[in-house]
């Protein structure tokens, strides 16, 4: 477990965005989660001051769950509706039905 995140958080993997801006972190995060199975609990670390709003918005748009936040730490669960396509190396995002 990361030494400074809340001790009660349980997670399967960790992604450290470092000093990058949220935009860059989200681009890198999108590529990173492609290899993770749905349901993974991910510790996301980002020191960008915009992170609280940006990661909450990213979770809403991607339908992932922002389980908890204590800047610069964010606990996210990748939703089971993300369908990994291992042959293509892609994550297929669900579409909205009419």
TrEMBL record:
SUPFAM superfamilies: SirA-like (SSF64307)
InterPro entries, sorted: TusA-like_sf
Protein name according to UniProt: Sulfurtransferase TusA family protein
Organism, as annotated: Fundidesulfovibrio putealis
